[in-house]
Inverse folding.
């Protein structure tokens, strides 16, 4: 099945146009040419179905029109090699990438996040959060620890993270590839991957589990992330994960390089 977009032509476009017309989204003449009218009809249909309204008739859009069509998105995984990722992580030991890239990619595949935008999002997030390409624990800083307090005391009462007072700040500090932080996130994403992280928070630094948590977190925000990327808004995409702009320069650099060299 082909991804159909403006400029596409042929029998598959005719079929698309006919299906759009059947559903009440008139693309004009069903002539097999994917022009502006067909794009507008696709966008209107996508909005009606709660799909990403990008005007491109990919697998999910075509499946929504014709349920017999495979809805799997094209996978970028075959093009994500150690050599490619090393170019996205110019300061990172190649051995760390060699060791951990397979588990990261497996985690993405398990969550059906193997398409290029989400693969780039995952790798760029790792570059921003844990540039060493290995799961790590958050270090103390003035943003999480007061001058005279115990480690991570500024997190203890962060109700936005679900923390309930000491020792939640240190117990649920940032860990893993994505720096998962806060009692709520440990509970939500631990449950999602079948791990009791509330009672065993250090498991978030196990490479396989860290990869699964990265994928779970990104899956939860997939739609919003893709809408930001559709607008070329890397700052917003980063904010959706981090809550701010920490590491934005590294994130943007890795994403831009990867977007250029990954097919």
């Amino acid at each position: 099945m082909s991804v159909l977009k403006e400029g596409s032509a042929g029998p598959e476009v005719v079929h698309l146009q006919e299906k759009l017309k059947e559903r009440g989204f008139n693309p004009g003449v069903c002539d097999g040419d994917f022009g502006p009218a067909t794009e507008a009809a696709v966008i209107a249909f996508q909005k009606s179905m709660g799909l990403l309204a990008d005007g491109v008739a990919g697998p999910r859009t075509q499946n929504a029109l014709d349920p017999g069509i495979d809805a799997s998105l094209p996978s970028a995984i075959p093009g994500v090699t150690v050599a490619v990722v090393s170019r996205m992580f110019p300061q990172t030991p190649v051995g760390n990438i060699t060791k951990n890239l397979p588990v990261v990619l497996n985690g993405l595949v398990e969550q059906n996040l193997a398409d290029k935008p989400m693969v780039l999002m995952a790798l760029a997030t790792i570059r921003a959060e844990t540039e060493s390409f290995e799961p790590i624990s958050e270090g103390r800083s003035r943003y999480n620890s007061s001058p005279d307090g115990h480690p991570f005391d500024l997190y203890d009462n962060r109700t936005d993270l679900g923390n309930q007072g000491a020792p939640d700040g240190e117990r649920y500090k940032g860990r893993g590839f994505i720096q998962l932080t806060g009692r709520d996130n440990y509970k939500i994403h631990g449950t999602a991957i079948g791990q009791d992280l509330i009672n065993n928070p250090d498991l978030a630094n196990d490479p396989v589990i860290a990869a699964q948590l990265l994928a779970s977190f990104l899956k939860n925000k997939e739609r919003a992330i893709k809408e930001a990327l559709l607008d070329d808004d890397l700052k917003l995409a980063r904010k959706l994960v981090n809550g701010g702009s920490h590491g934005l320069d590294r994130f943007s650099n890795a994403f831009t390089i990867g977007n250029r060299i990954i097919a």
About this structure: The mean pLDDT is 96. The longest strand covers residues 136-137. The chain has 13 helices and two strands. The two ends are 18 Å apart (CA to CA).
